[in-house]
Amino acid sequence: MLAGAVDLARAAAEELALPGQVGEHRGVVVEGDRLLTHVFESLVPGYRGWHWAVTVARPPRGRSATVCEVELLPGDGALLAPEWVPWSERLRPGDVGPGDVLPYVDDDERLEQGYEATGEDADELAIYELGLGRARVLSAEGRAQALTRWYEGDRGPLAPSAKAAAAPCSTCGFFMKLAGSPRTVFGVCANEWSPDDGRVVSMDHGCGAHSETHGPEPMSLWQSSEPVIDERDLEVLATHPVAPEVVASVDDGAEPADSADGPAAGTDEPAVDRSPDQA
Ligand code: SF4
Fold it and tell me: Can you tell me which atom of ligand 1 is nearest the CA of 195?
C-alpha cells in the first residue's frame, strides 16, 4: 500500500518544489516496518544528481499512507558545495580590513606568556618597552616567522629593487633601526619618495631613493642626434683646373661667365664640370 502511494508522494514533493521541478519516479527505498521513501528525479536548476525523497508511513492497522517528510537529497555524483570551513580559518593575511576584528586565538604559537602590569609604576613605560606589562608577547617562533617572512619578502635583499639598487638601506639616511634584537637586520624606511616608505626593510634591501646615491644627470629637452652619412651611393664628378680668365674676372669684380660652375671667390676649390643632367 505504501509503495503504491506514488501520487500522494509526488503531490507532497510538488507542494515544496516550484512547478516543473519534480521529475520521473525513480523507485522506492524501504526504510523499516511501515516506512518507505519514494524517490523522484530532481529538475531543479543547478542540482545535478540530486533527487526528491518523500518518506511515507502507515500506522499499525492504518489503511492510508501519511507523508512524514520531503527532502531534496544528493545522490551519487551530485554536485555539492565545498566542505564548510569556519571564517576564522578561511582568513588569510591581508584579508582584515578597517573595522574587522580577528578571533582571539588562545594557543597562538607566535605568542607566549608575558608579565602583566599590576599597578601604577613610574617605570611602566620602560617596562612596557621591554615586553613587560602585556598579557602576551612574541614567542621565539613568532619572531622567527615574522623576521623570515620580512627578509624573504618584497623588502628584503631578494627584491628586484634591492638587486638594482646602487647602495643598501644600511647606508641610507632614511633608515630607522627597529628596537630590540631585530635592530641588527631590520629598520623602517622613512623616505616618502621611496616605494617602501613606512615599511620594514632589511639592511641589505635598497631602492633608487637612497639618500646618498645619485641618478643620471637630467636629460635636456632637446636631444641632438649624430649626423647620418650615407656611403653607399657615390656621385662621381669630373673636375678641372680653374680657367685663368675666370679668375681674372673675379678679381676685377665682374661676374664670372658661369658662376654656378666656378669656385667661390677667394677659395681654392676646384671648379665643377656639371653635365646638363646634373645642372
Ligand atoms: S630610501 Fe630606499 S635605500 Fe633608503 S631606507 Fe628607504 S628603502 Fe632603504
Answer: 7
The minimum-distance atom of ligand 1 relative to the CA of 196 is 7
Determine contact, residues 124/133, Cβ cutoff 8 Å: yes
Q: What is the mean pLDDT of the chain?
A: 80
Instruction: Report whether residue 191 contacts ligand 1, using a CB cutoff of 6 Å.
Output: yes
3-state secondary structure of 125: helix
This prediction has a pTM of 0.47
Task: Write out pLDDT tens, residues 64-104.
Answer: 999 999 999 999 889 888 889 888 788 787 776 666 666 77
For 10, 72, 90, 120, 193, the CA distances from 15, given in Å and listed in that order, are 8, 13, 38, 70, 68
The Å distance, Cα 171 to ligand 1 centre, comes to 9
All domains of the chain in start order, with CATH? 6-74 (3.10.450), 108-138 (no CATH), 146-202 (no CATH), 242-272 (no CATH)
